[in-house]
Amino acid sequence: MQQQPENIHPLQHNGRSHIYKGLKAIVDCNSFYCSCERLFRPDLRSKPVVVLSNNDGCIVSRSDEAKQVGIDMAIPYFQAKNLIIKHNVSVFSSNYTLYGDLSWRVMETLRIIAGKNNVEVYSVDESFIILPDMTADEATNYGFFIRYTVEQWTGISVSVGIAPTKTLAKAANYIAKKNKLVSQCVTTLITPDEQRRALQSIRVNHLWGVGKAYTDKLINMGITSGWDLRNMPEQWANKQMGGVTGVRLIKELRGESCIEMQKQLDTKKMISSTRMFGTPVNDIQSVREAIATYTSLAAQKLRRQRYSARTISIFMVPKEENHTLDFHHDPIISMRTTLPRATSVTNELMKPALQLAEKLFEEGKSYKKAGVMLSGLEADECIQGNLFVPESKNNGRFLMDMMDNINFSMRNDILKFAASGTTRNWKMRQELRSHRFTTRWEELFEVS
DNA sequence: TCTGGGGTCCTAGGACCC
DNA sequence: TCTGGGGTCCTAGGACCC
Q1: Containing structural domain, residue A56
Q2: To the nearest 5 percent, what fractions of chain A are helix, strand and coil?
């Protein structure tokens, strides 16, 4: 029998009936990409499924059944092949058109439930929600309500974590996902007692904001659980964990909210397009074609989000000759240039991009990856004029809109710039992609 | 024995996230 | 043989200015 402190009202003895202000929920789709694939393949329900990254490089989403047979997250496809064959795992290349559409349906459902100003879309499969003032018990019920509604309306199952801060909500969500049978996919960490027990059970590497580098450092110092970290002094965090970032993390673990909800209309900082090459590339012509293609893609994204860009940078990753055993990030070479005025017209971006590519490319070297980044973004309505550059006619923009519309309604890339090339030997592999069921007429789901 | 100080802006790079 | 892509935020350090 647990002993209760005497000075607390019996109804509030565990803090569950106190009214809490500003609780936050994180709603996270379970194995999102796999769930999307299974939605249109009911035969795969409760079968192991994995989805691959671009280029069919590594595994980025696993169904619970695939996890159970021992397939790890983010490992290269070829390394998992044996397990995949042995356990008859279904494999899909990533199909972002499909995932993007289903993501929108899930987020729209959340906006209807919580009010659109209370939802912050954090990633393709996660949203933070700010809850009305309520008791801990009510919060739990609310979590279940979200879970059932989203599943019923979209067919996608979600896990919900609720706590006073985003970092603790993420921790709650981690616990909810870890043991779905116990949690039924909903966990709340609202009272101090709940938070302490949860943090004691979580290793630091599973905390939001602690990656590989800090994990190694913390473990070395003997700080292994979330609770250990929570109890470290702020000055220590300031020195050892990246300054203000570390201080914020510790405060958040203590229940003091430091990472506020973002307004959804906030402006982007950069838009990029980058790909691995299917095979390493060592001739300037292929590099030019790749850069031209990525520039078109990035410019298309730019226009779709109604931005223009002033700065364009391109980068390439040379293939390293001597392999080390450890996989590590290869050094990146990059170059940038700033335009006289912001633009979203593909050919205005293409020219400087290709010039940079020429400068960066070295004869005799091979490259395994390249990309284009657009920054210095300005929303279309408020482009800063430049007195010394003639106002470009609207023709460029008009032409772009036409291209975008045709590409969107027909199929991607039906219209493109000649510089993108037509053979594309460097193009990424994507052999196992499913149909874009919800966005292409010719790929609709068929019932026979 | 001695070599100013402090602010701002920019860039490169590290760390993290999904 | 084969290890993703698209982001954000923060810091350190250099250039420049007075």
Answers
A1: 19-195
A2: 45, 20, 35
**Strand B and A376 CB separated by under 7 Å:** no
CA A170, CA A181: separation in Å to the nearest integer? 19
Window A72-131, strand B contacts by Cβ < 7 Å: 122-126
Residue the block writes with tokens 């309500």: A145
A396-409 tens-digit pLDDT: 666 666 656 555 44
- Asked if residue A381 and residue A247 are part of one domain, the reply reads no
pLDDT value of position A10: 47
Final residue before a domain boundary, out of A195, A229, A249: A195
Most confident of A149-158, A279-288, A388-397: A149-158
CA distance A97 to A94: 9
Do A160 and A188 belong to one domain? yes
| Residue A11 scores a pLDDT above 60 | no
**pTM for this one?**
0.84
Q: Kindly write down the DSSP assignment for every residue of A374-405, as one continuous string.
A: EEEEEEGGGPPP-TTSPPPPTHHHHHHHHHHH
On the 0-12 / 13-18 / 19+ scale of CB atoms within 10 A, A159 is buried
Please tell me whether any atom of strand C lies within 7 Å of the Cβ of A13. no
- Residue A428 covered by a domain: no
Task: Give the model confidence (pLDDT) of A198-214 as tens digits.
Answer: 999 999 999 999 999 99
CA of A376 to C1' of B10 (A): 13
Tokens 């192991």 belong to residue: A48
